[in-house]
Design goal:
Blueprint (H helix, E strand, L loop, with lengths): L1 H7 L7 E2 L10 E2 L2 E5 L2 E2 L4 E9 L7 E7 L5 E4 L7 E10 L10 E9 L12 E5 L4 E5 L4 E6 L4 E7 L8 E5 L2 E7 L4 E6 L5 E6 L4 E7 L2 E6 L7 E5 L4 E6 L5 E5 L6 E6 L7 E7 L2 E7 L13 E3 L5 E4 L4 E4 L4 E4 L7 E6 L5 E6 L3 E6 L5 E6 L3 E7 L5 E6 L13 E6 L1
Parallel strand pairs: 1-4
Antiparallel strand pairs: 2-3, 3-7, 5-6, 5-8, 8-9, 10-11, 11-12, 12-13, 14-15, 15-16, 16-17, 18-19, 19-20, 20-21, 22-23, 23-24, 24-25, 26-27, 27-28, 28-29, 30-31, 31-32, 32-33, 34-35, 35-36
């Protein structure tokens, strides 16, 4: 009887301690986590810092700071869409004449969601094989990975051993091939399904981009101006032409063309743009834009309309004709775009944003159709037929120009 009575009259936890901080257990509610902790009753207290970790080995990121201990609560309204989130409160104390004073750390509190799948990859580019429903992740370090939407996992991966650039796919002699430019002066050729290396092509200097079409490989290299864009015959692996104004660029083929390219520089600012029209390997037309920084351009956010008449680029959604004439921007307000794609009919533009949404616009009038919330931060978008859209998202906010995700989650958006 005395034991029961003692349990019923257990003393409540103190609201403060002179030498420790107790962070209370918490739960996720509507994508937010409300934290509270006991006050540190110490005259040397300078501030509290709230740390968030995304894995047990993560050193932590400070997501809030309270000077002079003015508050003992914090709500994380931007909980990353990950299976593991951990919080800790750190008290920063005044330094003494003897030197810095060690901080006082609270216990850690974990929020776990095992149903969420995260992909450990940090790609600068992602491509999608719709027929096989496979994503390809390309990392600067040279790692190339296949991710199956069917099994929700990376199924194959290869370490190429070099810094790689923007790659392309084509079929040669009945074999699906993947062409990967490298900074060591080579283009490696892989079987696109098995990721086995089957050939290689020496281009002499670092290569940043490959486009394959009609038996030719169009390669951007680090060769000095006026011959940096090199054209190779795939079968003979021979150089058959060279042109270009700028080295180390990215270009895309205009859909349905044989072969028109829209090119953007990667190494100069403001970026320069060029248009090329080839007949086979021969250049028919080549000219540069007339703006040179007057309007937004970003080679990392760059998508052509399916009908080949225009393209979108930059976080502002700048619209250009394929012959480099600026036409305006999407009605973005304070939104910043991270990626673009189109529906199968080419009638709807989908634009990922830094604020966890996919915005849909009419591709003719640019009127907003609707805004679709996402669980994480869209990095790349792909049309996926009756499945809607594949959204390759970063679990944490992207930091700005050139910022890359380091953990991904794959969302299906409708």
């Amino acid at each position: 009887m005395s034991l029961v009575t003692a349990c019923r009259h257990q003393e409540p936890e103190p609201s403060s301690y002179p030498d420790k901080i107790v962070l209370h257990e918490t739960q996720l509610a509507s994508d937010s986590v409300a934290l509270s902790w006991t006050k540190l009753d110490n005259a040397d207290l300078v501030s509290y810092r709230v740390l968030r970790r995304l894995s047990p080995t993560d050193p932590g990121t400070a997501i809030s700071s309270y000077q002079q201990g003015t508050s003992t609560t914090f709500t994380d309204k931007l909980v990353p869409y990950t299976p593991y989130v951990e919080y800790q409160v750190v008290a920063i104390l005044k330094n003494t004449s003897a030197g810095p004073t060690a901080p006082i750390n609270s216990n850690s509190v974990k929020v776990q969601r095992p149903n969420i799948k995260v992909v450990a990859s940090s790609p600068f580019d992602v491509q999608f094989d719709r027929r096989r429903r496979q994503l390809y992740f390309f990392e600067r370090s040279g790692t190339i990975s296949q991710y199956s939407l069917t099994s929700s996992e990376i199924t194959k991966s290869v370490a190429s051993g070099a810094t790689i650039g923007y790659s392309d796919f084509a079929t040669y002699n009945g074999v699906p091939e993947l062409y990967v430019p490298r900074n060591d002066g080579w283009v490696f050729i892989y079987n696109a399904e098995t990721l086995e290396k089957i050939d290689q092509l020496n281009v002499g200097t670092a290569a940043t981009c490959v486009v394959a079409n009609n038996g030719y490989l169009f390669v951007s290299t680090a060769t000095w101006q006026y011959d940096a864009l090199k054209v190779y015959n795939r079968a003979a692996k021979m150089l058959v032409n060279q042109t270009g104004d700028w080295y180390s660029t990215r270009f895309k083929r205009v859909p349905g063309s044989n072969t028109e390219l829209v090119e953007m520089t990667l190494t100069i600012g403001p970026p320069d743009q060029h248009y090329y029209s080839f007949n086979g390997s021969s250049v028919q037309t080549h000219f540069a834009d007339r703006y040179h920084g007057d309007h937004p351009v970003d080679a990392t956010i760059f998508e052509l309309f399916p009908n080949g008449t225009k393209y979108l680029t930059s976080s502002e959604g700048a619209i250009y004709s394929k012959v480099l004439t600026y036409e305006g921007t999407l009605p973005h307000g304070n939104l910043a775009y991270t990626s673009f794609c189109f529906d199968a009919a080419g009638q709807t533009i989908c634009a990922g944003t830094t604020t966890r949404t996919v915005e849909q616009y009419n591709a003719s009038t640019y009127a907003l159709i609707r805004s679709i919330p996402t669980k994480a931060y869209p990095f790349r978008l792909f049309e996926d037929g009756s499945n809607g859209y594949v959204c390759v998202s970063s679990v944490t906010p992207l930091g700005g120009y050139g910022s890359l995700p380091y953990q991904l989650t794959i969302e299906q958006v409708r």
